[in-house]
Amino acid sequence: MEKLLRLERLLENLERHQTKEHVKNAVKEWLLASRSVIDSVIDTIGEEREAPVARKIKINISDD
């Protein structure tokens, strides 16, 4: 019976402090931060691909 009373008090405290809303907001912030990091990585990869690359060209001159 004592465990049920503790559980009831815990649930009342959670409801009073709006824990569910805090958790939802924390998850949203984490997702937005993760998206920002992913976007930055994608931009960096794109910039690396666009960088000019020096290539060595081999020219053969034949005596025909």
Describe the secondary structure blueprint for this structure.
Elements: H1 2-16, H2 19-50
From the alpha-carbon coordinates, what is the Rg to the nearest angstrom? 30 Å
Order of helices and strands: HH
* Stretches with pLDDT under 50, minimum 5 residues: none
Report helical residue fraction. Answer: over 70%
Provide the residue-averaged pLDDT: 82
Query: Strand count, sense and closure of the main sheet?
Result: none
Q: Find the structural class using helix and strand composition.
A: mainly alpha
Q: Give the strand content.
A: under 5%
Number of helices: 2
The coarse silhouette is: rod-shaped
* End-to-end CA span: 104 Å
Count the strands? 0
Explained architecture:
With 64 residues, the chain is mostly helical. Helices cover 73% and strands 0% of the residues. The protein has helices at 2-16, 19-50. The termini are far apart. 0% of the residues are buried. The model has no long low-confidence stretch (mean pLDDT 82).
Question: What's this entry about, in short?
Answer:
The protein contains two helices and no strands.
